[in-house]
Amino acid sequence: MRQLFINPMLNKEFKLRFRSFKSFIGILCYLMAISIVVIGFIYFQSRMSMNGYFRPNESRTMFMILSFLQIILVLFITPGLTGGLISGEREKQTLSMLLTTEQSSTSIILSKLVSSVSYLLLLILSSLPIYSFVFLFGGVAPTDVLMIFGYSLFLVFVFGSIGIFFSTIIRKTIVSMVTAYGSVLVLVGGSLFLFALTMALSGVSSNGTPSTNPIAYFMAMFNPGIVLYGHFEPRMMEEILSLTGISFPLWISFIITYSILAILALFGSIWKLRPRMKTRARG
User: Fold this and answer.
1) What's the predicted TM-score (pTM) here?
2) With pLDDT > 90 as the criterion, what percentage of the chain qualifies?
3) What would the DSSP string read from start to end of 100-112?
């Protein structure tokens, strides 16, 4: 297990990624985007308030906006960072040399994924001082902040695994990235559209009571935004469960489903990394 994470491959990835000037530019742009949202929200809420104060319930709204913004940025950045990890090596014609080393396929895939995830982890942790603005005004518990950061890291791992899977099975980096972004669009946008459609089609039974539609539950199970909003608004989550007729917690279904997707993507990447040699049957 130690050789999987402490190896020359991982050291090289860390040096290339964290010594790059583009990495620091990326962190700067990320922090600037979040800072503009926080400062702009406080400014407009203070101007719109009658007494010019920023109230604690507005602080909770700001925290929700920050959380959704961070999730959106994670979903936008992760496919771009992981969609070309293996296909990029193939285009630079260095993958063949990499495969001739003593590093196993598992070690190569995990080293690439860990180096990319570490950069995203640095992005998320660097936003902690900005989140401290929320505590200045109250209205948010520390457990909420820990939950959001844990949720963001989980999404980074899942969509990072999906990105490296497409990078392994597709030869061209640009095609791999487009496919990775397409998978994010299908999982997030497609599930949200189908969830709204199935909820709208839910009718009323003959005895006047609302009919349940379990399909809406399975659509919501794939959407990170609905699960996150359900954490902030438990009443909305209770209403979804009552309309779908399934009482099992939605966030547990989400964690199980996305964990299975990530594990399958990682196993698929490890299995498809090395070309299979065809053996000719001896007559």
Assistant:
1) 0.84
2) 16
3) TSS--HHHHHHHH
